[in-house]
Write a structure and sequence with these properties.
Helix content: 25-40%
Number of helices: 8
Largest sheet: 6 strands, mixed
Structural class: alpha/beta
Number of strands: 6
CATH topology: Uracil-DNA Glycosylase, subunit E
Number of domains: 1
Order of helices and strands: HHEEHHEHEHEEHH
Shape: globular
Radius of gyration: 17 Å
Strand order of the largest sheet: 1-3-2-4-6-5
CATH class: Alpha Beta
Length: 233
């Protein structure tokens, strides 16, 4: 099974009745600013470079972000922060993305999430996360070149560790915190980050400089701390 076949299975998933109902209700009762949109309203596939060395793990699609556009982090404020940072450090071809078909592309990076459907109040239930876990586990198997894993937020951090343990990684109890770096097996590392949610960015808990530092560390790890890479402005 390759990554594209896996994502085709994800898109057809209906394991979680609560999420099926919610994503469709959101698509039916649109805010005025999105009234002309034909909402995706299905589980979101992961996307990116199949040879990626950087793996980014989000929490869940936003109701009027990914659930609308059909691509993770596309069309919401969190995505604005993430894509700008990825562009700055050479992991994306553009600094922003608003639509699934706008030719935005990742380079040496892959984006997935703990859960693929927009949950009510952005709070997935434990059983919903478990329903999605097999998809993430299969991605861990298929993404052979990953060296740096960046979970965004504490839930993504916790669920990433759990999945890595299921796949045989020997990991002790690790504390979540922004910018913490934890060695994994086979030379890989995990770099934890606050989620670029509006709650974090508007309150100042997460600044641009703090968020950029995460991807600066990722780039340095991948390039062996080489000074040759030039950060984009």
């Amino acid at each position: 099974m390759d990554l594209q076949k896996l994502q085709n299975i994800v898109i057809r998933c209906r394991k979680c009745p609560r999420l099926v109902v919610h994503r469709q209700e959101v698509a039916t009762h649109k805010p005025k600013r999105f009234r002309d949109w034909d909402y995706w309203a299905r589980p979101l596939p992961s996307f990116g470079d199949p040879n990626a060395r950087l793996l980014i793990v989000g929490l869940a699609p936003a109701a009027h972000g990914g659930n609308r556009t059909g691509r993770m982090f596309t069309g919401d404020r969190s995505g604005e922060w993430l894509f700008e940072a990825l562009y700055r450090f050479g992991f994306a071809n553009r600094r922003s993305s608003e639509r699934r078909d706008d030719r935005f592309a990742l380079k040496d990076a892959y984006i997935t999430a703990a859960i693929r459907c927009a949950p009510p109040e952005n709070k997935p239930l434990p059983e919903e996360i478990e329903n999605c876990r097999p998809y993430f586990l299969k991605e861990l198997d298929l993404l052979k070149n990953v060296m740096v894993i960046v979970p965004l937020g504490q839930i993504a951090f916790t669920q990433t560790l759990k999945s890595l343990k299921i796949r045989g990684a020997e990991i002790s109890s690790l504390a979540f915190g922004h910018g913490k770096v934890y060695p994994l097996s086979n030379g890989r590392v995990l770099v934890s980050s606050y989620h670029p949610s509006q709650r974090n960015t508007q309150t100042g808990k997460l600044s641009r400089a703090m968020f950029h530092q995460i991807f600066r560390m990722a780039r340095m790890r991948l390039e062996g701390c080489s000074s040759e890479f030039r950060v984009r402005s």
